[in-house]
Amino acid sequence: MIIAQNVKIERLVLDLSNENYLKMGQAAMMKNVGRLPLVISRGEGSRVWDADGKEYIDFLMGISVNNFGHCNPEITVALTQQAQKILHVSNYFYLEEQVRLADQLVKMSGYHQVFFANSGAEANEAAIKLARKYGKVKLGGKYQIVTAKESFHGRTLGALSATGQPKYQESFQPVVPGFSYAEFNNLDSWKAAIQDQTCAVILELVQGEGGVIPAT
């Protein structure tokens, strides 16, 4: 059933150049990352267009989020159908689609349960909390977590504390205690970093910010 199919929604349409959108965005949006001077207007497959209509090939793909391409027809249909059904009810309830997806992931992965998160940072925050709780309940109070130098695990405070890059942490000291850092792909460094109080290790299989280096 489609509700409010014929409702007309009025919205403000701005017809600005890439430069003018940049000025507006720089004035109105908080600078939390270094953005490129490019305002994306639309995308299709591996290509995007800026507000001036200039075409680009997108090699970033949302940092590996949009691996099926922009405006993928099958994904667009699935999103449209779900939006016409229901989008959000909070995590106090179950959603049919979430239950089916969780069931499939459990069957495919061999794990017992899954946790749905909104971002990589939130997923890492959950992993940190689970490791700390397990260490407290099952391992006699172990709490230390070892990660790699030059790693990146997110911008929230716990994930930032796990990130082995002092340049990201210096403005937010003191960060969450209980983290130590080892040299990536250096087994001796990891053996030295893992102590009696270690409850977990967080490691990127391929370091991104560290230089696109696979773990060996």
Describe the structure in your own words.
This protein is an alpha/beta fold. It folds into three domains: 39-85, no CATH class; 87-116, no CATH class; 120-214, Aspartate Aminotransferase, domain 2, CATH 3.40.640.10. It is 36% helix and 13% strand. It has eight helices and eight strands, in the order H-E-E-E-H-H-H-H-E-H-H-E-H-E-E-E. The protein has helices at 18-28, 61-64, 73-85, 96-109, 120-138, 157-162, 166-169, 187-193, and strands at residues 40-44, 47-50, 55-57, 144-148, 179-182, 198-201, 206-207, 213-214. Strands 1-2-3 form a three-stranded antiparallel β-sheet, with no helix packed on it. A hairpin with a 2-residue loop joins strand 1 and strand 2 (47-50). The longest helix is centred in the middle third of the chain and has 19 residues, at 120-138. It is globular and about 60 Å long. The model has no long low-confidence stretch (mean pLDDT 92).
Would you spell out the secondary-structure blueprint of this structure?
Elements: H1 18-28, E1 40-44, E2 47-50, E3 55-57, H2 61-64, H3 73-85, H4 96-109, H5 120-138, E4 144-148, H6 157-162, H7 166-169, E5 179-182, H8 187-193, E6 198-201, E7 206-207, E8 213-214
Parallel strand pairs: 4-5, 4-6
Antiparallel strand pairs: 1-2, 2-3, 7-8
**Order of strands, widest sheet:** 1-2-3
- The CATH first-level class of the largest domain comes to Alpha Beta
Annotation field: number of helices: 8
Helical fraction: 25-40%
Task: Please give the largest β-sheet.
Answer: 3 strands, antiparallel
CATH fold category name of the largest domain: Aspartate Aminotransferase, domain 2
Give the structural class.
alpha/beta
Instruction: Please indicate the percent range of residues in DSSP E strands (runs of 2 or more).
Output: 5-15%
Distance between the termini: 53 Å
Shape: globular
